[in-house]
Every structure is written in structure tokens, then in C-alpha cells.
Amino acid sequence: MKKKLYTLLVLIPVFAACREGKLQDFEDPIGSVYFYIDEKKEVDEILYSFIYSFEDKVVVNVPVKCSGLATEYERRFRVEVVDDLTTAVPEKHYSLPSEAIFPAHAYEAVFPVTLYNQDADLQSKSFVLALKLVESADFELGDKERQIVKILFSNQLEKPESWQDWIFGEWSRVKHKRLIQIAGKDLPSVDELNNDFNFWYYGVGQELKNFFIKNYPVLDEHNQVIEPW
What we know:
- This protein has helices at residues 2-27, 165-168, 173-183, 190-195, 197-214; strands spanning 31-35, 45-49, 57-67, 75-81, 94-95, 99-102, 108-116, 127-134, 139-141, 148-154.
- It is α+β, with helices and mostly antiparallel strands.
- The strands form two sheets. It has a five-stranded mixed sheet with strand order 5-7-3-1-9, with no helix packed on it.
- The radius of gyration is 26 Å and the shape is globular.
């Protein structure tokens, strides 16, 4: 009995030390960050058009998530421009901070990007601003497939990710504007479109098709006939 008791007394400090080390690791988590534009990893673009507003500038909040444990204090994460993927000009088309705050107790944050509607070229072409996450004192890099995001912006309509040719036919700006007039709003995300499928397919899609059949021929922005589908 004395021998067993002695063994137990020897092991207690060892268990205590291991537990103390685990608690220390738990209290001092190291997180990693990644962009989260959509549940599908291949979706890495944010589309924005000033055509929906009359503002000279707008703030686009790029969603960011972290893995690991949330903390009781604010942390900071950093973002840089990917020059070889970017066509936008700093201060002319956009401005952005070098870092942003990840709130306490949170697993999600945003990186604010200011876009400017001051260049007449925005009415005829799109510009791209590509961003990448970089390591900071508080975060490592997370999911490698979600480290770069591209913001595609202009002062004209852009083809949305959720546009389905089999529902709406081949995309054009003229057709897109007619769709917005019919629906009373622009296309939502892919998930939202699927959740409201009957409205977009049997309602908007069919009415859009009938419009171009009844008013044939209608020309698109390139003076090409929009063929019924």
C-alpha cells in the first residue's frame, strides 16, 4: 500500500505540469486568416458597379475568417495589393489601409476597401484590384486556396457569378438591364437564386425570354441581335 501511495504522489506533479502547459496553450491561441467570398473556394471575385448608386466613392467590405480560437482582445491582420493582377490605380481608383482589426470574440471580420467613381474610363471598361493576405504579428496564413481576392469594378453592369445562360440566355448588358427592370432588383448570389428558384426561373427568366421574342430584333451594346434562347 505504501508503495502504491508513493507512486501516486510522484505522478501528481507530472500531471499538474502537463495540465498547466495545455492551459497555457489554450489561453494563447495562434490563429490563421483567409478570405471567404463564397462557400465555393473557386469563387474569388467581388463584382461592384457604380451604376447602382450616384456616390463618388463606396466602401467594399471584403469578408475574412479565422481558424483557431477566438480571443478576448482585438487582433490585427494585414493585406497587400497583388501588383501583377491589378489594373486599378491607387488613390485614383481605390485606397485601402495596410491592416484591419479582427474583433475580440469573433471568427469573422472585414477588410474595408474604398473605391472611387471619378474616372470616366469606368463607364467603358472594368478595373481589377487584387488583394492578398500577409502574415502579421497576430495571424498566420490560413487556407491557401483563399489567400487572394479580386475586386472587379466599373460604372457599368458586369456579368454576375449567378448568371445562368440556360435560364437567361447569353449575357449582355442590354439583357441584364432588362432583367433588373423585370425583377425589380439585380441577381442575388448563387445560393439565394437557388433558394428562390421558382421566382427567377418561372417568373423572371420566362418573362425575359418572352420580351426578346415579342420585340425581336433587339440589339445589344455591340449592335448584335439578341437571339431568343
